Write the structure tokens for this entry.
Amino acid sequence: MLEIKDLYASIHESPILNGINLKINSGEVHAIMGPNGSGKSTLSKVIAGHPDYSVTQGVIEYEVNFKKINLLELEPEERAREGIFLAFQYPVEIPGVSSSVFLRAAFNEICKHQGAEEMDPLEFDEYLRKKMKLLDMDEKFINRPVNVDFSGGEKKRNEILQMAILNPRFAVLDETDSGLDIDSMRIVADGVNKLKSKKNAILLITHYQRLLNYIVPDFVHILVNGKIVKSAGKELALKVEEKGYDWLS
Amino acid sequence: MIVKNDQLSFISGLKEFEILVKQESPLWAYNLRKESLDRFAKRGLPTVKEEEWKYTNVASLKEHQFQIASDSSKMAQLKELKAYYRKEEINLVFINGVFSEELSNLKKLPKGLKVADVNDAALYSQKEAAFVLQRYPQDQDDSFIALNKAFLYRVAFVQIDPKTVIKPLIHIIHVTDAVKSSVSSFPRSLIMLGKSAEAQVMESHLSFSDDTYLTNALSDIVLDQDAKLVYCKAQGESKNAFHIGTTRVWQERDSQLDSFSLMTGGKITRNNLNIVLNGSGAHATLNGLYLINGNQHVDNHTAVDHRPPNCTSTQLYKGILYDAARAVFNGKIFVKKEAQQTNSYQLNKNLLLGPDCRVDTKPQLEIFADDVKCTHGATIGQLNEDEIFYLQTRCIPKSQAVEMLARGFVDDILNRIADESIVAKLNKLLAEYFQD
């Protein structure tokens, strides 16, 4: 579904990613772990298309309708419409924009792109409430401005709610577990597991092994200094938890 | 007795005006006009050399001849006007400065409420009203207050008896439709709330044309002890119009003002809002919004005068500028020596979305008491890149993201207005900027 080939990226001319290769198939869950500053979040932002990062080499091939396109040539919103989703490590607060208006606008962009009919506010409200139940979210949330005065846990839940609404083919979850207490993490992980299918793929970016007990990966990759230094099955995460990263570099 | 004067070269029709008002006027009104005219003649139009007018140049007024409006010639855009206001509310409609009985709705007013278009003579019979008209020291009138008073004739008068709560919106509407020539109008309002009275009053200054004209408005508001007023001034004038207005609010003990100013029309706008907190426990909220584009210029000046102890005031003025628009914000807070325990907050936030727009913002504090809490600040900036990116990752294209964030910036302050009918009207004036 998605293949990263020899990817180099930098921000303000300092290199962060130094030749990443990664292949992800439909139905798979991959986890990327690594020490602080290894380039985990940069990778997620480059996939989503953040304008601050410049890709100096490499491609990200992405399969759309059995054809391969280079994701790097698309604007962020075009990537999103093709089914790329990023759950932010630090979701942005947007004062004055109500969650329901924002989510409906996003959802209808996908409808438009797929040639489906857009939902009116009433229909969407019903759809939204169904998805909110999945994540055990308070109804009050609908009319509140996006992420404003949300707790850390609510913000993360809101990210997964957006994932549920947009139903992406390839989702990157950037440190979705950070700042969550154990109950919230269970709810978020349950939500993600319900959204997982044979047709989509998930890339988990995480610091700790903890999340991987709840969302079990097929593959674990270790990122150090902008390069994947080791890839293996889920047992690799346990080893890292025990030994740290030093033995790998 | 009105003598044509060089300083008044931009106003015409003085003689006709004098004939119009001569017969009905009591002596005090006659004197007030004469003294005010003399004062204006002496002062002339303010120049950018004066600190108060440093960023707003009104010299271009002299390139025009504004006929004093005296007849309500047929409104061409009646449909637009009728779509703007609600028939079932209490409406006081003026077209080109002249009261329109047909469009107003003053029959069957609730008990304890007087709303009328009155002339100065009628006001004279009301000692209290006459007192308010002369409450502020005349020699401190600035050029445009003096000019407005020089043409005092009709007054939009709202009076609410003590302990009376008026639920429906009281809406004073000034529409200019200068079909024949450039006109000038001098709207004057007087809004008085008795002890423990409550009401919501909106003043709209509108045009559905792109005519060139001058509106020089003066509104006086008096809140007696424990009175509560929601007040909104909405300015949606023609984009070629000059709008220069002052609203003065006088607040007695424990009274509450919740005010909102929207400035979105006009070529050159100056809007002053001056509050005197005269009784302890009084509170004033001054919120404002300006959205302008092209070469529009909007200047908001606020002044809050904390005189006795234990008063509070909060101000939030937000603005979005497109193209080469220019905005000025000047907010003064005075805290007198006796005004201990004052709590005052002021913030001005600007979003610059045009390549050539400019903002001059100047918050000012003058504090003479030692036990007070005052904060103020201003921000000028562009949209946050991270917010735009966040929306893009949710499928929303950049141009739409920009509009959505601008809309959010606006809604953040509009949402503070509790009355939906007011918000609906303000949104109509902003329709140019937002798709829905």
Q: What stands out?
A: Chain A touches chain B through 30 residues (CB under 8 Å). The radius of gyration of chain A is 18 Å. The mean pLDDT of chain A is 92.
